[in-house]
Specification:
With about 280 residues, this protein is mostly helical. Helices cover about 70% and strands about 0% of the residues. The chain has twelve helices and no strands. Helix 3 packs across helix 12. The radius of gyration is 23 Å and the shape is globular. About 30% of the residues are buried.
Length: about 280
């Protein structure tokens, strides 16, 4: 009886937490389906009386701004994901397998970088990219977003490589593989769930970036989709239904990635959950 009561209590707590976290998403969808007049009614209705899909239609007919923003964000996000994943794999493997004096301070450094805001390095990155003539190119936000993904990817992949027994390395070498061959043919296939997790989160970081995209790119036709939100903030009012519809459209690629890759994400996060 006591276990059943505890299960019901945990279910109720979980349900309350689920509702709290999902309510903002529900409110985004409802606001996008309302008219501008209905949004400012007091009390605001929980569901639109005059349901309209016009804000969503505007996203596909706004002179190609949304589709162009999608293309720009896709170029930046994929580029940053490829760079951060390629660089973090050997770095995390080295931190997991080899012992050296600066190992712990280096890991601590990667953890600290996750706590620092992006704006902290914005000025230094701008000066560096300006001297390298990278401003107004896709490479500037790609490199900047990669700096966000690399530390997180290293932390995730390091714990995953630690969970892989070292005996597999030794068995591969006994079979005639070199260190590089055992890494490529044995370690990488086993660590593929962790690599997918690192790549997905690097993509999410880059896709949701705004500050780097509008700082390093001044050409409106090259800016990522996140910068298009300012199109709905007018001088005397904010078009909230269009803003919410834009937000829903903008997050759809990330939502689809998590839906189709959730099996790999869960596997990568749980299998690498070992003591470092």
């Amino acid at each position: 009886m006591k276990s059943k009561k505890n299960s019901k209590a945990l279910f109720f707590v979980g349900l309350v937490i689920f509702v709290i976290f999902m309510f903002p998403l529900y409110w985004m969808i409802v606001t996008a389906l309302k008219t501008q007049v209905e949004i400012f009614e007091i009390p605001t209705p929980l569901w639109p009386r005059d349901l309209t899909l016009e804000p969503f239609a505007e996203q596909l007919s706004a002179s190609g701004d949304t589709l162009r923003g999608f293309k720009n964000s896709m170029i930046i996000a994929i580029g940053a994901t490829v760079i951060s994943t390629i660089l973090s794999i050997p770095a995390s493997y080295g931190l997991a397998r080899f012992r050296f004096r600066a190992k712990k301070p280096l890991i601590l450094f990667f953890l600290i970088t996750q706590m620092l805001p992006s704006t902290l390095v914005l000025t230094s990155l701008y000066i560096m990219f300006s001297r390298l003539h990278l401003l107004n190119t896709y490479l500037a936000p790609i490199l900047a977003d990669a700096t966000l993904g690399i530390p997180f990817s290293i932390i995730i992949l390091r714990t995953y490589f630690i969970s892989i027994p070292k005996e597999l390395d030794e068995a591969a070498k006994i079979d005639g593989c070199s260190s590089l061959q055992s890494f490529v043919k044995v370690m990488l296939p086993i660590a593929s769930p962790g690599i997918i997790v690192a790549a997905v989160f690097s993509f999410v970081y880059a896709w949701g970036d705004l500050i780097y995209g509008i700082t390093f790119i001044t050409d409106p036709t090259m800016r990522p989709i996140t910068s298009s939100i300012y199109n709905y903030v007018q001088q005397y009012q904010t078009l909230w239904n269009s803003t919410m519809a834009f937000g829903i459209v903008a997050i759809m690629p990330v939502v689809l990635i998590f839906i189709f890759m959730q099996r790999y994400i869960v596997s990568g996060l749980t299998n690498g959950a070992v003591k470092a």
